[in-house]
Every structure is written in C-alpha cells, then in structure tokens.
Amino acid sequence: CIAGMCVDAHGYLIVADSSRKEILHFLKGGGYSVLIREGLTCPVGIAITPMGQLLVLDCWDHFIKIYSYHLRRYSTP
C-alpha cells in the first residue's frame, strides 16, 4: 500500500510504502532502490526539505522521523 510520495529536486520519486514498511527511491529511467528499511512501523507520509532532510510520518509511532537525504549520482549508459 503506497501511503505517500514526493518528488525531489532532480525529479526522482520517493515513496512511503506502509505495507512493506519501507521508503523507496524510484529512478527516472526505471527501477528502484530501498532508501530506508529499518525502524519504520507504518510510514504514511513523506517530504523532502530544501535543506536535504527526508521527513517520514510514521503513524503507529506517532512521530515524524528525520533522515539525511543525499542524492546519489547515477550514470546512464
């Protein structure tokens, strides 16, 4: 169940998946990676601040969790 999503400054989609209890990072050309897998009980919302922080609303913990978000550089063939 996708609970929330946002797009970073470079156009990459960041998704809070509450059923998998993960934060996923989707590339423009396809494919995805798991950004956050540990410490989430029910992520339902997500946002990226201009300062590079990833905010995750975890509803069962009743917290907004703050993570550093660093965009990795991806090269295309």
TrEMBL record:
It holds the Pfam family NHL. SUPFAM superfamilies: NHL repeat (SSF101898). The keyword Repeat applies. InterPro entries: 6-blade_b-propeller_TolB-like, NHL_repeat. NHL repeats lie at residues 40-70. Keywords: Repeat. The keyword Repeat applies. Coiled coil: none annotated. This is E3 ubiquitin-protein ligase TRIM32-like. It comes from Chrysochloris asiatica (Cape golden mole). The gene is LOC102838947.
